[in-house]
Amino acid sequence: MQAIDAATVHRLCAGQVIVDLATSVKELLENSLDAEATHIEVKLKDSGLTSITITDNGHGIDESSFSTLCRKHWTSKISRFEDLECVSTFGFRGEALSSLCSVAQVTITTATRDSAPMGTELEYDLRGELTKQTPIARERGTTVRLTNLFAKWPVRHQDLKKNIRREYLRLVSLVEQYAIISDNVRVSLVNQTRTGTTTHVRTAVQSDRLTRLLSVIGASLRPHMVRIEHGCTQNSDEVKIDGYISQPIPEAGRSGADKQYLSVNNRPCDVPHIKRLINETYRSYCPAKYPVFAISITLNAQTIDVNLTPDKRTILIRHESLVLDALRNALGRVLEPVESVFSVNRVQPQIAAPVNIDDEGPSGSAAGVSPVQPQVVAPMQRDDEGTGERTRTAETSVPGVIRCFADDRPESSRKRPANPVPEPNPAHTKKLKDPLPPAPPTRTSRPQPTLPTQPTASKKLQTMVIGNCRNRIQNDTCEWTRTHDRMQRKHARHVAQLEESQERSMDPVDIADDAASGGVQNTDDPEQASRALSRLIHKTDFARMSVIGQFNHGFIVARLHSDLYIVDQHAADEKHNFEHLQHRAIISSQPLIQPSRLELSIVDEAVAIEHQSTLERNGFRIQVDDTKSPGHKVLLLSQPVIGQTVFDQQDFMELVGKLCVCPEAMPRCERARKMFASRACRMSIMVGDPLSLAQMSSVVRHLSELDHPWNCPHGRPTMRHLFRLPT
Question: Mapping DSSP to helix (H, G, I), strand (E, B) and coil, where does residue 136 land?
């Protein structure tokens, strides 16, 4: 055996500290933040292939430290190992600058407050020794310039050139993390190429964390970001959580987990269990998307260990279960209410009086009536049992809603005016004389034949058909003589309701009353005004909803107080069936011919042994062999089978990982979840199925029994606010 020479040791260690483009910038960026800089600019030329320059306005470097600045394990952050328990700076190992000298050419320009505007330019060799010192003009701060990164490391240099686009995107993501957590610091990232200069990150000095986050993810997500806060003390260990997360709705989430920023004690880091908990909790509300979040966790410095890896991004938390419980509670409080907020659409009812077809002025409008949208009526070509009575249908502005009219005029007296007949303005109507009023009409594409004319004939609205195919209704014949008695019985009841609604619609709308009903009075705050025009629905409210009817054989119209909601019958029933399968289904298993011994970590093995019953319900039967060493005690006896799909050890590890994060829940692996979602979809009520009142009430009532009733397993909302009834 022989000792490795110092130069080789230096290069071996440096290769573990600086591994790619992102880590080289990270070390310099952290040095600038430790120097209490308020303006940091990262400037790359050709995405870092040519040069990397980081400029700040921090304290600068004292002249007494020039010769030792880039030496191995020389630092001003700590002096002994015990100082790690209270270290507050990003760096403390004294390896960054020394390692950078080994992988690139390093030039440093610096000036302190006492020496400015006179600064010094310093050049160092591969071993970190000072080779040149030149006076230069410079304001207070430090500039570090790296050139020829990995030039003497041929494999890494070739990989960097080959994957420069991927490496640069990783660098952008890293700079974004530091820009978000850095209060009162302006951070910018600029890339200069042959085609021009591009700024990818830029934050303002005087900005809060939400503003900095939006400058990274885009201002369009501002309405969808919600604050998450938590503060508690358990076993003398304080856990504080603060940050923002996107609402669990499709338009606020992302297709990938690329905009997720986590920091512990204001240090960006990777904690897999914490990120997994956040993603799984969010995806239980919005399965098709990943959340956007920037969450900061503050712990007692003595309960974490950041000295695990040279980049200090992997940390160890002493009481991780307490942190996970606190985070789970905070997410539950934030996501549960937000998911059930519905925008309010205030709709004034359109109440119309009977129209006299021939009571027209010179301009073709009814006398004394303001012009409104015309109503085009298409005749149907059949008499009802020889009575001479003909029916006509008219399209409305609501798809699937058809108004049917009976014309009681003699055949010879029927006419069709050349111009469409407008409806009277409800404001000029004194009394409702006809049954159900027409809704705002739209034009129909059916031909408009001309009929003989005769004055003073009236058109009576007999019924409104909701929930059937429009084309089928227009083509079918309405047998009015058979339904006349039934319509007359409903007539009196409808007239009383519509007269009362008409009187209310004549009153002016008081916006202040609307705001007060939402919990806000005379406010200039747009967020409070937005809350006033929204409805917060809890799961228990579904049980109090009254069903009005079915629309278009696909949606259920329900009422809660003065608000109307429309429920997707397929999505609602699908979510009920899905959660039933999730909680109660027992997956059958297939025994293995030869039991397989699993190689697990000690933590995963303990979790698997503790939750054998849960794994067995998912189809995995295991056996524990206490004679074996830790990590090799678990034998897999059988694997789950659904149809022709056989689950494997990867699915087993996924279940164990979920049990580590949330041991009290019934976890399902992703493949099983997709199969349950598909099965729930096929066994549910479909769009086009007519439902009785009891069936519709059952669908709506079942939503109150679900864990997450707001979306189907595929992410489609189960309910939307329709409009608010006038009060």
Answer: strand
Tokens of 650: 């990867």
CB of 250 closer than 8 Å to CB of 712:
no
CA distances (Å), 464 to each of 92, 215, 490, 612, 662, in order?
77, 52, 12, 60, 52
* Residues in Cβ contact with 26 at an 8 Å cutoff, skipping those fewer than 6 apart: 174, 311
Cα(184)–Cα(661) distance, rounded to whole angstroms? Answer: 35
Q: CA angle at residue 671 from 670 to 674, to 5 degrees?
A: 85
| Alpha-carbon gap, residue 132 to 468, rounded angstroms | 87
- Residue 158 backbone dihedrals phi, psi, to 5 degrees: -65, -40
Angle at 213 between CA 212 and CA 217, to 5 degrees: 125
Rounded distance between C-alpha atoms, residue 428 and residue 559, angstroms: 30
Contact 532, 515 (CB under 8 A): yes
3-33 b/e with 16+ CB inside 10 Å = b? eeeeeeebbebbeebbbbbbbbbbbbbbbbb
Tokens representing 717? 């909302």
- Segments of the chain with pLDDT less than 50: 236, 338-339, 347-478, 480-481, 504-524, 526, 529-533
Calpha distance 639→588 (Å, rounded): 8
Closest by alpha carbon to 353, among 510, 506, 564, 507? 506
Task: Return the amino acid letter for 324.
Answer: L
- Cα 231 to chain centroid, rounded: 24
Helix axes 96-103, 21-34, angle to 10 degrees: 140
422-448 burial by CB neighbour count: b if 16+ within 10 A, else e? Answer: bbbbbeebeebebbbbbbebeebeeee
> Are 544 and 537 contacting, i.e. CB atoms less than 8 angstroms apart?
no
C-beta of residue 73 within 8 angstroms of C-beta of residue 22: no
Unique residue bearing structure tokens 């309960």: 303
CA–CA dist 532, 24 (Å, integer): 50
Q: What is the rounded distance in angstroms from the CA atom of residue 48 to the CA atom of residue 26?
A: 13
Alpha helices in 18-60 (DSSP H): 21-34
CA distance 520 to 414: 55
In this structure, are residues 557 and 677 in contact, taking their beta carbons and an 8 Å threshold? no
pLDDT at 64: 87
The side-by-side arrangement of strands in the sheet containing 390-395 is 378-383, 390-395, 401-407, 460-466
The pLDDT, as a whole number, for residue 287 is: 81
Distance CA 416, CA 392 (A): 12
The Cα–Cα gap between 313 and 170 comes to 14
**What's the predicted TM-score (pTM) here?**
0.56
* pLDDT tens profile 415-455: 444 444 444 444 444 443 444 444 444 444 444 444 444 44
Handedness of CA 19, 25, 28, 29 (dihedral sign): negative
The residue among 440, 443, 428, 447 whose CA lies nearest residue 464 is: 440
Instruction: List, in order, residues 6 or more apart from 315 with CB less than 8 Å away.
Output: 264, 267, 269, 271, 304, 305, 306, 308
Instruction: Provide the pLDDT for residue 435.
Output: 45
pLDDT at 52 (0 to 100): 94
- Report yes or no: 221 and 214 within 8 Å, Cβ to Cβ: yes
Greatest Cα-to-Cα distance within the chain, rounded to the nearest angstrom: 119
DSSP, res 526 = H
